[in-house]
Amino acid sequence: MNFLQFMQAIVLPLREAHPDWARLDGRQTGGNRKEAGRFYHAGRVWVVHSDTHFGPLLRASEAAQQGEDPFLVRETPRGQRLDLLPELWPDKHKYLYVYALN
User: Fold this and answer.
1) Exposed, middle or buried by CB within 10 Å (0-12, 13-18, 19+), for 71?
2) Quick check: helix, strand or coil at residue 55?
3) Hey, how many other C-beta atoms are within 10 angstroms of the C-beta on 40?
4) pLDDT tens digits, residue range 68-80?
5) Number of domains making up the chain
6) Domain of 45, in residue numbers
7) Could you tell me the pTM of the whole model?
8) Residue 7 burial (CB < 10 Å; 0-12/13-18/19+)?
9) Residue 63's closest CA among 4, 9, 11, 1?
10) Distance CA 83, CA 96 (A)
11) What is the pLDDT of residues 84-102, one digit of tens each?
12) How many CB atoms are located within 10 Å of the residue 66 CB?
């Protein structure tokens, strides 16, 4: 499934069911590496962690619906992650925890 399909199948129904949640797992704080879902992008499979916030995913979805690629691939000590383009999410906190499946 691609990113927009992931949003339709997992994120948007979860957001509708829990409009008061900031994160996919409903928690307020703390890390949560539990997998919320996966999608295919830029030739790779990406895993979304449950502590990801709805905000950056919704911004990315809006850009993707307009035909833009909202993501930057960044290197980490353990592999790769996706970040939003800075103009889409100027907040210094990323709140987006999406990593390449190794």
Assistant:
1) buried
2) helix
3) 14
4) 999 999 999 999 9
5) 1
6) 3-100
7) 0.94
8) buried
9) 4
10) 7
11) 999 998 888 889 999 999 7
12) 8
